[in-house]
Amino acid sequence: MNQLAQELIERISSFLPIEDLRNVLILDRKFRYAAERHSGAFAEFAVTERNSADFLMRFSGHRLLYLREVTFRPDVSAAYDLKGNDNDDRLFSRENADEVRERDESFTRQIQYLFDTLQLVEKQAGEYHAPGRYRLTIYNPIRRTENEDVCPHRYMTSWRVQLLARNLPPITSIRSFRIVSNDSKGYEYDHPPYDPYGYTYCLRYNESGMQESKLDLRILIDLAISMPNLEYLGTRTGGYEWCETLDEDEDPCSGHFEHDWTGPRRDARHDFAAAVTSCVDKLPKTLRRATLDFLYPLSRVTDYDHGTLFPDLVGSNLTHDPFSTSLGILCNNLRHLQLRAMIDESIFHALSPQNSATSHTPWPHLELLDLMFHNARPDGTWYFQGSDGQGDVARGLPVTDASYPPHTHTQLDEDMDEFFEDYIRAGRQTRGKDNHEFRVAPHANLILLLERFARSAIQMPALKEAVIWSPIQGQDVYPERPMGSQRDLDVIWSIEYAEPWSSFNARPTRQLDWAVGKWRPGKELHSLFQEIGRAKHGDELAERWYQDDEWEVGWSLYEVEGIAKSRFRNYGKCV
Q1: pTM of the entire structure?
Q2: Cβ–Cβ < 8 Å for 221, 270
């Protein structure tokens, strides 16, 4: 038995069922290693402060090589959320500044503990074995509210949870890292979403006694720079920024409790930009793939009245969105990128016909690009307008000191608390309000974004496939369908490029697919898109134009997400 090569033993063990793997476990060390690997018993571990000793015992050795995913769920519940009494004034008021900081300190302590534990495992295993190759998944922190007396203002908060300490130890074993919301088990845009714990950021439908706290966006960057061998970066968050449109006279949750204050929302975007620009030299040089979804779940971020005045999340003193610009920097060395965000054209490096040959090449290694942009722009303007031009705005609402939640209970809060008691806890049903949805025609802002996209794509030497798209809906698209919270999301506005493919079902030429309804690009913009891939693959190009009546068949939101899931199926999975 000792004469068998380890490779042969691994091959044999790969065919054995679990019961037989248990039988060979004690044959010798070679079979033990193989049985442990192929059993899957050491592939995943959910780390907590209570089981960290078990984690150290299991993986401080050769088993670190078998580990494929570590998960961590921070809990920022306060003591008075769980027990408290009627004499505790904090139960009936908003969080003050000290309490917000206590929550940040709790989260920071938990993250520090997690990284210290992961580093200790590496140190204990590293003397005899190479570093592991696992994915770290951190979920947005939850807050349990078991005390029924706790005021909703305390946990439906817009203040982002901050990471106060950024000197975390480096973890060389992490090859894939993501921060995601708690409401789905999978990550690659699964249908339907799976809800294992019932966590939610929506007060109206929450029956679990748990709420999801909002993380400052820069935490994704602050943690990633402590992973020198990182190959994949992912996030899935942001649905809390949009509150479902309901009749505020009958549902106080929608307009008061659940809405996201624009001050912390704007600051989170700027914090992310500051983290990228200040840490650009520290970003892992190994980073090659990313799925950055800041619009999850999509059903929430598209359910709004098109006449809504959106906030200016950029600032009147700036001409371009820092968040978008920083995404362009972060993604510069990627090969695969799937992005969903509210962006402007500054995500693409500015290229003009005069300087495109000598300018910095944008995203020089990018092969696959799936970019979904929100209808609304960061400055409060829009990419789409009504078919007769309605809905144009010069700039969004300014963010001022009044755009931040108060740290003390106000008279309005007390009035809304009474509403909450009468309409929600009394068991009354809320009703949806039909949204006025008319933004289906491209605005001049969209032309600028498409031009930047095309000019950049022309300069990407490795580009194989690229799609830029946005979900749109409105009475002008399907007038016979009811508008409201129950209607389908079924219209995709998109332009997709694909290079020639010489394989089964070969695509002999470059291809452009236009799902843009009756709209047609101007001559200059059309020529730019036709130029994508020409230098590499020649002049031949096939173009397909999908008309209105074909959208529902071939370009539904469900199918586009299915295509994206297939195209990026291996994102975030460790080798």
Answers
A1: 0.85
A2: no
What average pLDDT does the chain have?
79
Question: Pairing mode, if any, of strands 210-212 and 492-498?
Answer: unpaired
Strands 69-72 and 134-139: parallel
**In 3D, which of 323, 235, 320 has the Cα closest to residue 271?**
323
CA distance 295 to 19: 44
The structure tokens 């990026």 sit at 568
Q: In whole angstroms, give the CA distance from residue 57 to residue 159.
A: 38
pLDDT of residue 425: 60
Residue 211, strand partner residues: 143, 200
Query: What's the Rg (C-alpha) of the chain?
Result: 26
What is the phi/psi pair of residue 286, to 5°?
A: -85, -5
387: its two tokens = 């078919």
Q: Provide φ and ψ at 36, rounded to 5°.
A: -65, -40
What's the start-to-end Cα distance of the chain, in Å? 29
Express each pLDDT in 366-377 by its tens digit.
999 999 999 999
Q: Determine the Cα–Cα distance for residues 166 and 216; give it in Å rounded to an integer.
A: 13
**458, 528 contact by CB (below 8 A):** yes
Distance CA 510, CA 515 (A): 17
pLDDT digits (tens, 9 = 90+) for 403-459: 999 988 888 888 887 777 776 566 555 544 556 788 889 999 999 999 999 999 999
User: Strand 441-442 vs strand 465-471: parallel, antiparallel, or unpaired?
Assistant: unpaired
- Report the amino acid identity of residue 477: V
Amino acid at 526: H
CA-angle at 154, arms to 153 and 157, nearest 5°: 75
Strand-pair category, 510-515 with 541-545: parallel
What is the C-alpha separation between 215 and 181, in angstroms, rounded? Answer: 10
Q: DSSP of 208-262, one letter per residue?
A: SSEEEPPBPTTHHHHHHTT-TT--EEEEEEEGGGS---B-TTT-HIIIIISPPPH
How far is the C-alpha of 235 from the C-alpha of 99, rounded, in Å? 27
One-letter-per-residue 3-state SS of 256-321: HHCCCCHHHHHHHHHHHHHHHHHCHHHCCCCCCEEEEEEEECHHHHCCCCCCCCCECCCCCCCCCC
- Using a 10 angstrom Cβ sphere, with 0-12 exposed, 13-18 middle and 19 or more buried, the burial of residue 412 is exposed
